[in-house]
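#struct-pred

JT: dropping the chains for the assembly here, can someone run the whole complex?
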Amino acid sequence: MYSKILKLRFPITEVQKPIVCTLAREFDLVFNILNAGILPRKEGFMVLEVSGSKKNFKEGVSYLKRQGVDVQNASQEIKRIEKKCTHCGACTAVCPTGALAIKRPQMEVVFDQTKCSVCQLCVTACPPRAMEVRPTNQLFFE
Ligand code: SF4
Ligand code: SF4
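RK: done, full complex below.
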């Protein structure tokens, strides 16, 4: 499963069109809208997480661009939802950078975000889904 957070900016003529629904229907992509609105100059913007196969993702992005939508990758970071983490250690086995490590003798799993490469391997490895991908920069367009 390929997943990215995208920032879309729609020209005024496209704001009313169901572009994102087409993205899901035609390209078998799953999307989660993180933010959306209308900018002062009447452009629409949307921040959404899009997931699917890499091939479908690329074709979906090409479709958006053909519709005149400005598509940008949002910078991403990994956050741990502390209350969900059970310190099971599963993520430490897949983390290639040592950002997730077992602290001994307490046997707590510590997360050092400064070492994280945002490879996202821990996201699927974590049984309670405590690791999440989030956009780092402002959700709004400047
Ligand atoms: S796999 Fe998830 S629950 Fe287990 S230690 Fe890592 S973040 Fe915590
Ligand atoms: S995203 Fe990759 S580098 Fe970052 S904590 Fe998870 S497994 Fe480690």
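JT: nice. The helical segments are 19-27, 54-66, 90-94, 121-125. Residues 138-142 have pLDDT under 50 and may be disordered.
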